[in-house]
Write a structure and sequence with these properties.
Radius of gyration: 22 Å
Strand content: 35-45%
Distance between the termini: 56 Å
Structural class: mainly beta
Shape: globular
Largest sheet: 4 strands, antiparallel
Number of helices: 3
């Protein structure tokens, strides 16, 4: 199925954006005016926190030793103090209709990096300062981003360069750029073969060890990270790769047939050759499939509905089905990334769902009862599909799963007022214990967007949590005022 040339998202009307925002179901709650929690409030919050026991004390502080070209995996320990302080606060001074979109947010340990329209920028973690380390101008608007980076902090983006002649103005996304996020240096750039129908609506990008893989439903291509050399590619046919999930493995979603009579297959690929190692055939009647995890393999499927109805877990060795988990009452938010369309690559991105080694964690729908937890995060056993624990939010304080860390899940709980701060928490579903990592407040005027996983990107790495709106908006009453682009919070405790 051809998406056709989409309307430019960079000149989308304010009316269309308003309609998209109206479809979002997240509550926009007031936060606090200050970014940092006063020390007396933090002390009170810590005194009331449940004891976590000693389970996390045994977890190694060192990251798993990885090769430079592996997709990065880090391990966290509790900061010296949960009292939060600003670590990054960058504002956009010249926001326009063409520069308000911000796909991509990564954290290296020393920098927070985000994509904005036609550039990538790295911001130093420097409390009290707005310090831009580097800015890389790209040859066009960003079309697709990977959620990952390598162990040595490299990642890729697909861009939409200007095209002359008949292709001009059609929004073709046919170039991939590989970037060092520490320095902002462009390592290589390649034109994707046969990408005449690659658009911001259908292009998906993934990283696995040593390989960058891109698919757009009408073709695909993979490149060697080190050299930028093409490893393999596909062209048009009865069945086409829609996109990939990366990380420790490379998983492909293959679509056969036309819309209304389509069928799907999921394949684990040899990343260097593109050849399938096994194939799982998705049941007929499924309208859409997402790939939130490649290892362990997890599918999110839309079975007769426009929302995800089930999660399916597979055996990574042979592709056999392990468990099916109903998503009735849950919000994995696959494809829900705040933009008014499937922009920037959504196939492997489900901001309401996190997959760990033998657990997956998914957000529940919100409760309408004011005296009940706003929502909860539920852990499921990957092999059996059974419930393995629940983490309750608080009234009006939603919880969002951010990332797995060994046996722990790192969550974000939003704030409600000046007294009850936002928090980043590590939760162990096996022992049902939690440990506070950071306590802080998000600026009141930005809290609703930044705390909503559909509208804001949230990343926790190396003891810091970073927030970035997917779409930045000017204040209608102060149209020339700077707009918050990236907010980072770290521990105010001793730095050793």
């Amino acid at each position: 199925m051809s998406f056709g040339p989409p309307p430019s998202i960079y000149t989308e009307s304010a009316q269309s954006a308003d309609k998209a925002r109206a479809r979002r179901r997240r509550r926009l709650l007031g936060g606090a005016a200050a970014v940092v929690v006063a020390a007396v409030l933090v002390a009170g919050a810590v005194a009331l926190w449940p004891s976590t026991g000693s389970g996390n004390d045994a977890k190694s502080a060192a990251a798993v030793k990885q090769a430079p070209d592996e997709v990065r995996e880090t391990h966290e320990t509790a900061p010296p103090s949960p009292e939060g302080e600003p670590a990054v606060q960058h504002n956009e001074d010249e926001l326009t209709a063409d520069t308000r979109y911000g796909p991509g947010l990564w954290a290296t340990g020393k920098l927070a990096v985000r994509g904005v329209a036609t550039r990538l920028e790295g911001y130093r973690i420097a409390p009290g300062q707005d310090d831009t380390a580097w800015s890389l101008k790209l040859d066009g608007h960003i079309c697709a981003v990977s959620r990952d980076m390598t162990a040595d902090h490299r990642t890729a983006v697909v861009i939409q360069p200007p095209h002359p002649g008949a292709a001009a103005g059609k929004g073709i996304c046919d170039q991939v750029v590989f970037v060092d996020l520490d320095t902002g240096k462009k390592l290589w750039q390649r034109k994707m073969p046969g990408a005449d129908f690659a658009y911001v609506t259908n292009t998906n990008l993934a990283l696995t060890r040593g390989v960058v893989a891109i698919a757009w439903g009408h073709g695909s291509v993979a490149y060697d990270m080190a050299s930028g050399e093409k490893l393999w590619s596909t062209s048009t046919g009865a069945c086409q790769d829609q996109g990939y999930a990366g990380g420790r493995a490379l998983l492909a979603l293959v679509k056969c047939g036309q819309s209304g009579d389509q069928s799907y297959r999921v394949q684990k690929l040899d990343a260097r050759t593109g050849k399938p190692r096994w194939t799982y055939r998705v049941s007929k009647g499924v309208q859409g499939v997402y790939l939130p995890s490649a290892d362990p393999p997890v599918l999110a499927v839309e079975a007769g509905d426009v929302d995800v109805t089930d999660l399916i877990t597979l055996d990574g060795t042979n592709g056999r089905q392990r468990a099916t988990i109903s998503m009735s009452g849950y919000e994995p938010l696959c494809g829900s990334t705040g933009f008014s369309g499937p922009f920037f690559g959504v196939l492997d991105k489900c901001p309401g769902l996190v997959v760990g080694g033998d657990r997956l964690y998914v957000m529940s729908k919100e409760s309408d009862e004011i005296d009940e937890p706003a929502n909860r995060v539920v852990a499921f056993d990957v092999q059996k599909g059974t419930v393995a624990g629940k983490f309750e939010g608080r009234p009006f304080q939603n919880v969002v799963p951010l990332r797995a860390d060994g046996d722990d899940l790192i969550l974000y709980r939003r704030s409600i007022d000046e007294v009850q701060p936002a928090a980043v928490v590590a939760w162990n579903s096996r022992t049902d214990t939690e440990r506070p990592y950071l306590l802080f407040h998000v600026p009141e005027e930005d809290e609703g967007v930044l705390s909503d996983p559909e509208q804001g990107q949230i990343v926790y790495e190396h003891g810091h949590v970073f927030f970035a709106a997917r779409e930045m908006e000017r204040d209608g009453k102060r149209p020339k005022s700077p707009v918050l682009s990236v907010l980072g919070v770290g521990s105010a405790g001793p730095k050793h």
